[in-house]
From TrEMBL, chain A:
Electron transfer flavoprotein alpha/beta-subunit N-terminal domain boundaries: 23-210
Protein name (Swiss-Prot/TrEMBL): Electron transfer flavoprotein subunit beta
Top-level taxonomy: Bacteria, Pseudomonadati, Pseudomonadota, Alphaproteobacteria, Sphingomonadales
Superkingdom in the source lineage: Bacteria
Pfam families, A to Z: ETF
Family: Belongs to the ETF beta-subunit/FixA family.
Keywords from the UniProt entry: Electron transport, Transport
Keyword Electron transport: yes
Length: 248, 310
């Protein structure tokens, strides 16, 4: 069984994003970039499924040359080979999904495991779009994945609780935070990853037009909340709550 | 513009998130609703009463009983032949269905909008709400999900939409089947519409203490109960309590954060609350940077005393 895992290079989740003064976006110069946390979970899940019938894990990233680092991280975690689709300009989820659909045609994986959302643009679209383009089943926001015969059972985090769906394979899965705890790559594995294969492509190689459909007119900081007051004790807090009409 | 709004419901009643989506859609033009499900006559009748609604399309089929995106999306795509925009609330089901519709229409979805600036221009949060982008769509048809806390709820009375059955539902695509659900029974106000929320973090240290301390305070205040991811991961509180970037986005009148540090992913879910109250023993905890009222101290002393004095 082959699994494809798309991984995106994003601003590290510990870094506080700063909006550029000219309002064109978030400043990414000289800040730490990492693999999207949900994609680490996706890679981890694919690796864990290796005991359960998965034989090959192919990781894909669409983005600037530096996304090689992200792919190497995935290889060091345990993926087998990588494909980098180079685009120095931003590719939107629709374009990403179209490229991934072409890669799926070539690679014929049994499953594609994506993150549920990239924490830069917070779109939460690519997996569902890919499932639509391929006419595959989709198990989004997965907190548990179990491969069965010709199908996969996916427990999904939904409002109010959890839902389990059975998807016919091949299928799309998107990961939620509680699916697993991703491993750290060990030093020997980081060394080994350096010699694992990494193919380079461009969107044009797949005949996909990635012209953006959305134009960002401006990016601003949200209205700032200013810190309020500190109260000395519970009585003062109760007083404040009463003042606000929250408590009687 | 003629907009089709997907109605979120539980088979019995229209969910509140739908009402905010209707308000957003009404800023684009004429609002039509789509009620998809099995045995949904009651829901359709309720939906038709929402203020400002034109037609209510109803697709009743066993294949729609669980809102599976694989079955619902093709139906929506067909209806989009006669609509200019598709709008869904940013709920887990809405987020599951809408992008599939967008891809099938060859449209880039505009996720989680905060405002409608014009027919093609919207604002939306990026980077966990640390930045707000204004985006303009060049697609002929729009596919949009709506952040519930950013739009007022449409009135549930006053409308008189014409109910119309969808001619052909398309039925089951055979890609997925619903195998079961565990929906927590919760007597408390739903988080996304609660006026007051009391949230607990990792500091509660056990499920027992979480419930022993947070629940009575919430009861006193008539509040909904939330939690940080750390508290959920540790099993102190159920999944659907989680507030934040990857949990629920809430904006109550009052949010009480107890033993929560205030990581940006948590703030992303609650920083639009009107008043934020924080209780934390660390006076430098980031939560105090957004709190209107802070109390520094040990929650195990403070919370019981607070509950008693209220
Ligand atoms: C991709 C991603 C998405 C995420 N999404 C979310 C999300 O949606 N929601 C979310 O909440 N988190 C999310 N997180 C996790 C987030 O980064 C934090 O780890 C989490 O919010 C921390 O939870 P906490 O504040 O309860 O725990 P901690 O950070 O451990 O804070 C505990 C706090 O309790 C205080 N404390 C300890 N003992 C006491 C006491 N006796 N009395 C009073 N105060 C006490 C401490 O001073 C501390 O400030 C996400 C992380 C990632 C990577
Ligand atoms: N440029 C990209 N390269 C590789 N994978 C991507 C890219 N963009 C999105 N993805 C995948 O799609 C998921 C959801 O992203 P999004 O729809 O942008 O929130 C991510 O977690 C990745 O798994």
């Amino acid at each position: 069984m082959k699994v494809l895992v798309p991984v995106k290079r994003v601003l590290d989740y510990n870094v506080k994003p700063r909006v550029k003064a000219d309002g064109t976006g978030v400043d990414l110069a000289n800040v730490k970039m990492s693999m999207n946390p949900f994609d680490e979970i996706a890679v981890e899940e694919a690796i864990r499924l290796k005991d359960k019938g998965v034989t090959e894990i192919v990781v894909v990233s669409i983005g600037e040359q530096k996304s090689q680092e992200t792919l190497r991280t995935a290889l060091a975690m345990g993926a087998d080979r990588a494909i980098l689709v180079v685009s120095e300009t931003k590719v939107e989820p629709l374009g990403v999904a179209k490229i991934l659909a072409k890669i799926v045609e070539e690679e014929k994986p049994d499953m594609v495991i994506l993150g549920k959302q990239a924490i830069d643009d917070d779109n939460n679209q690519t997996g569902q779009m890919l499932a639509g383009l391929l006419n595959w089943g989709q198990g989004t926001f997965a907190s548990k994945v179990e491969i069965a015969d010709g199908s996969v059972n996916v427990t999904r985090e939904v409002d109010g609780g959890a839902e389990t769906d059975t998807l016919k394979l091949p299928a799309i899965i998107t990961t939620d935070l509680r699916l697993n705890e991703p491993r750290y790559a060990s030093l020997p594995n980081i060394m080994k990853a350096k010699s694992k294969p990494m193919a380079q492509k461009t969107p044009a190689d797949f005949g996909v037009d990635v012209t953006p459909r959305l134009t960002t007119l401006k990016v601003v900081e949200p209205a700032k909340r200013s810190a309020g007051i500190k109260v000395a004790d519970v009585d003062a807090l109760v007083g404040k709550l009463k003042e606000m009409g929250v408590a009687k | 513009m003629k907009t089709l709004v997907w109605v979120e419901h539980d088979g019995q009643a229209v969910k509140d998130a739908t009402l905010s989506a209707v308000t957003a859609a009404s800023q684009l033009g004429e609002v039509h609703l789509l009620v998809v499900g099995q045995g949904v006559d009651g829901v359709a009748a309720e939906a038709a009463k929402i203020a400002g609604v034109g037609k209510v399309h109803v697709a009743d089929d066993a294949a729609f009983a669980h809102a599976l995106a694989e079955n619902v999306a093709p139906l929506i795509v067909e209806l989009m032949a006669t609509h200019d925009a598709f709008v869904a609330p940013s709920t887990t089901h809405g987020k599951n269905i809408a992008p599939r519709v967008a891809a099938l229409l060859d449209v880039m979805q505009i996720s989680d909008i905060l405002s409608v600036e014009s027919e093609d221009t919207f604002t939306r949060p990026i980077y966990a709400g640390n930045a707000i982008a204004t985006v303009q769509s060049s697609d002929a048809k729009k596919v949009i999900t709506v952040r519930g806390t950013a739009f007022a709820k449409a009135a549930t009375e006053g409308g008189s939409g014409a109910i119309e059955a969808v001619a052909s539902t398309g039925g089951d695509k055979g890609l997925s089947t619903f195998a079961g659900a565990e929906i927590a029974k919760n007597e408390r106000p739903e988080l996304t519409s609660a006026k007051i929320i009391v949230s607990g973090g990792r500091a509660l240290a056990s499920s027992d203490q979480f419930h022993a301390l947070i629940d009575p305070l919430a009861d006193k205040l008539g509040a909904g109960v939330g939690a940080s991811r750390a508290a959920v991961d540790a099993g102190y509180a159920p999944n659907d309590y989680q507030v934040g970037q990857t949990g629920k986005i809430v904006a109550p009148e009052v949010y009480v954060a107890i033993g929560i540090s205030g990581a940006i992913q948590h703030l992303a879910g609650m920083k639009d609350s009107k008043v934020i109250v924080a209780i934390n023993k660390d006076e430098d905890a980031p939560i105090f940077q957004v709190a209107d009222i802070g109390l520094v101290g040990d929650l195990f002393k403070i919370v019981p005393e607070l509950t008693e004095k209220l």
